[in-house]
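Retro notes - structure team

What went well: the batch runner handled both jobs without manual restarts.
What didn't: labels got mixed up in the shared folder, which is why I'm recording both outputs here explicitly, each with its sequence directly above its tokens.

Job 1
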Amino acid sequence: MGVAYERFIEALGANGFRFQANGTYRGRAQCPAHNGSDMNLSVADGDQGVLVKCHSYDCPSEDIAKALGLTLEDLFDQDGRAVYDYGNGHRVTRRRTRDGKKIYQDQKPVVTTLYRHPRSAPIETSDVVVLVEGEKCVDAALHLGESCVTTWPGGAAGVAQVDITPLAGKTIRIIADNDEAGKRAAVRLSARLAGLAT
């Protein structure tokens, strides 16, 4: 469990808001930003901190934190730093900038392998593999109950470089980012997987 998630759950209780666990390190709560009485706030332990989503009014994360006496920075672990290990000494580090919005990627050397999340079922023993864009999306898909999830390094631009041979013979479900670059990346992946996987 991340520090930010634990801090957020404690702050909910200390301020009189209900929280109900629903799976491993996730649940529903009353939204403190609009003082909701319904359990309309999704809370989950993400790879960089606590993930919060108000389903009633789409309250901003900063407002949710402020209502609990927290700052936006309090919603992140390790000052917004996340390290993703691709194996063989290849790591991708993402850090949140001071404004709490932008993330930059430090990637050396160039990574061409698929990402292996420690909570994901191994690609080698899985018949179905979910392919998403970005390490944060892997974490989110695993929280939603997917079994085997992976991604490639470099975002939409990295589709052409990634080694997809571990996906041979598998059934692949591609979940595209909801933007033009994400949709183009999904089309390119489908083309590359043709004849190799379903």
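Job 2
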Amino acid sequence: DRILDGFDGPFEEIDAFMLDMEPGEVTGTAAPAGYLVDHRINDAFIVVNRVLKGGGEVFWMKEPVSEGGSSFPAGAFFVPAASLDAGAAAAMAREVGVGLHGVTARPAGGALELHPVRIGLWDRYGGSMPSGWTRYILEHFEFDYEVVFPPELDRGDLNASYDVLLFPDGAIPGLPGEGSGGRGGGFGSGADGPVVPAEYQDRLGSVTAETTVPRILDFIRSGGAAVAVGSSTSLAYHAGLPVANHLTGPDGSPLRTNDYYIPGSVMELRLDDASPVTHGMGDRVDVLFDRSPVFRVEPGVPGVRPLGWFDSDAPLRSGWAWGQEHLEGGAALLEADLGQGKLFLFGPEVTFRGQPHGTFPLVFNAIYYGTARDVPITEPPDGS
């Protein structure tokens, strides 16, 4: 509510809103075979990243794990004791603020074996705001990455340098006649080559449908993983996936703004909580939705799996949504197989300005799941 007139009350000035982080604890057995870390905590990825950077092992459990009265839903991370001794575990829990639970034996069942991932994050000369916020998120959760500009993407052979490519909103052009659908060109996007300093010349240019997109699709088909957010989900159409725009009228044309318009509101999605991409998130999530893409996927289409969809004609949680009933049945989050690789499509603004912590796991999970090896956990040869 906007307050236009002066008012008074029993108010007290507060100097700061920051709270000290509570240190985490190590629980469970005193002589563990390893530690379980709850996937539902975003900072668990800091633990994962630190262990992997130190040369240790991390496994992502595909089924729920229970031991000694403690239960973890599917997705818990298991770190063998050989990769994190008792002193290091206590320090990690204290510094990161995440609990580590010691277990007497390696958990049984299927798992994904994780390894350090070479991440390439798209950007352009002058800077993209969504890409900048994605940098902030990756750095905060201690993911290593390299910034990739269009000329490098155009050269191809991307699998030699990267395992995962991230394309924030505005990175990928739309189909002919549609435009990018993103948030504008960004500062410096139209810079003239001769006026740009020599050391930045290799950053000039834009992603094009004719040259860049085929290189990206080759990367995925050759075993890479790509994560596309917002308007960059147009990669689905460039790849020829069997999906369509859900937000169309009876004649197949896009809905008009006087029939449907949702700018910057919070909407609720139903999740496929059996997918590793949604581990740690439950079966529902609130997303920041700003004129975001929504897909129509025919049931049973091979190679394309909806991860999140609108199962209500009134999904609005906060803000306003004109014609929100048109969303019902549409898919907002997709996973697609493309050759030997994977393409993850997140229509809503899941990283918007570094704020929606509830949807960061979609990106973190996709980064590791896209390149993980599906293996059973076995005891090491020496039994340690």
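One thing worth noting from job 2: Confidence is low (pLDDT under 50) at residues 183-190.
We'll revisit the folder naming next retro.
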